[in-house]
């Protein structure tokens, strides 16, 4: 009976040793716990608008209510929106102080879903945006968003509905890169440089054929649409006789005395086809409301010193005038053209009436005809654009 006992004694001594070894192994394999200061940070929390305004550096996710469309440092539209490129967020849906708002840039991918011109019902709804916290319109802002979602849900890296179809201005972001986010005189200066660079000027004779393309009737390729009368007339009836159409200078060529010289005198962005008789009646008058109805051009009115165009092109006229005032600023061989709130400007390099032009631009936003015309001039003729067609919100920022 004494034989088996040593064996049992060996087992009894070995089991505690094995357990100790196993415990040591588990301890060695367990990842060491980092000191409190070195532990991985939790995901960044969503910021309030007030926090985003105070931070203005790095990347952040912000949740707030849509309260309007910023058009300048201290100007936010709450109705009659002019574009899809910017919105203002606030911590309260009833906020009216711009100091408590964050201006958010809306890039091409998000405009069809978050632009206020396209989606005015977004007003006073909550959205969550991720992007770079930096000044926009010289105001606390968020630019280059990587996510925009409705509500307070977890942001995704792209819109929840996929990549939206770009708006008409989406493809022009690169063209206007040096102007985006600016306002007032800084915006005007940047746009002047952009639309004066790489421009091809036409001869006055060359304008005839160009207008047959830029102002072609979408319903009849043999005709052009006359600006004031709205009549569709054969392209072949260009000339100087009664019943013909000729080249109307919307910025009257005597206002600055540039005539028909290459440059302002042949700039397609303000030259339009018009009936010879109607063109003569308009003459070199400034723009304003009121007067006597114009025979042969329904919806137009005139008096001794002003012309009121038909409602369908009032915005077109305004944006052409604003273009000329930005394009020609006296740093070339031509006069510095300016818009003022007067009529009877004579040969002074000014056109009015500013207050009416601002109203017209807001009431009659760019339509498909005007946008197409801008594109044709850019791609086929002058290689510059009218920025107020691509970004109507810039009108009030510069001239408002």
Automatic annotation (TrEMBL):
Biased composition annotated in UniProt, kind: Low complexity: 151-170
Region of interest: Disordered: 147-170
InterPro entries tied to this protein: Endonuclease-I (IPR007346), His-Me_finger_sf (IPR044925), YhcR_N (IPR045939)
This protein's UniProt keywords: Hydrolase, Nuclease
GO molecular function: hydrolase activity; nuclease activity
Spans traversing the lipid bilayer: none
The protein's name: Endonuclease YhcR N-terminal domain-containing protein
Species name: Winogradskya consettensis
